[in-house]
Amino acid sequence: MKKKIDVYEHMGEILKRVKSGVLITGKADDKVNSMTISWGMVGIEWGKPIFVTFIRENRFTRSLIEKTGEFTVSIPVDDSAKKILSFCGSKSGRDVDKAKELGFTYEEPEMTSVPGVKELPLTLECKIAYKQAQDMNAMTEENRAKFYPQDVDSLFTGSNKDTHVAYYGEIVNAYVIE
């Protein structure tokens, strides 16, 4: 059962969990994939609640999000999802069906085409309102050197060669799966 929540009342909790890891899920055609992120923001822009996620250009999940313009954010409410977060942050959806491998459950969405993950029950359904590729020349030298060294192949998990695309997702639905 889904219990609607006021996203404004949960912004602090959402940000706290982003720091330790949440799942971003994309879906296109017959493919669904969730990846772990720990970079993100929640706030208000254009008078709407917005979740901003940053996804490297060559990630499989990004290709799914690009096709539909939608994503979900699945947020743990305790520490029980550590195994899911670890696995989804170290394996590519190009190579493995993460839900099948770990046995987690996709929850049917209400306002988008992208499911949330039942085992991470605080869910944000988002539709892209804006996106922008990061400009390496606009970054500090320190951040460019630390997060984007050019000696790591961008096709591998953990690679640093490609930059991120910022996706501003309007939060069109927020709930906790009970």
Features:
Flavin reductase family protein; single chain; 5 helices; Flavoredoxin; Split_barrel_FMN-bd; alpha+beta; 178 residues; 8-stranded antiparallel sheet; Flavin_Rdtase-like_dom
Taken from the alpha-carbon principal axes, the silhouette is globular
Radius of gyration, in Å, reads 16 Å
> What is the mean pLDDT?
91
Poorly predicted sequence stretches spanning 5 or more consecutive residues: none
SS field, number of helical segments = 5
Instruction: Write the H/E string, N to C.
Output: EHEEEEHEHHEEEHE
Distance between the termini: 5 Å
Strand segment tally: 10
Helix content: 10-25%
Q: Largest sheet, described in full?
A: 8 strands, antiparallel
Determine the strand fraction and express it as a percent band.
35-45%
Q: In a nutshell, what does this entry contain?
A:
The chain is α+β, with helices and mostly antiparallel strands and 178 residues long. 21% of the residues lie in helices and 38% in strands.
Fold and architecture overview:
Pfam families: Flavin_Reduct. Residues 20-176 form the Flavin reductase like domain. This is Flavin reductase family protein. Belongs to the flavoredoxin family. The protein is an alpha+beta fold. Helices cover 21% and strands 38% of the residues. The chain has five helices and ten strands. The strands form two sheets. Strands 1, 2, 3, 4, 5, 6, 9 and 10 form an eight-stranded antiparallel beta sheet that branches. Strand 7 (106-107) and strand 8 form a beta hairpin. The N and C termini lie close together (5 Å). The mean pLDDT is 91.
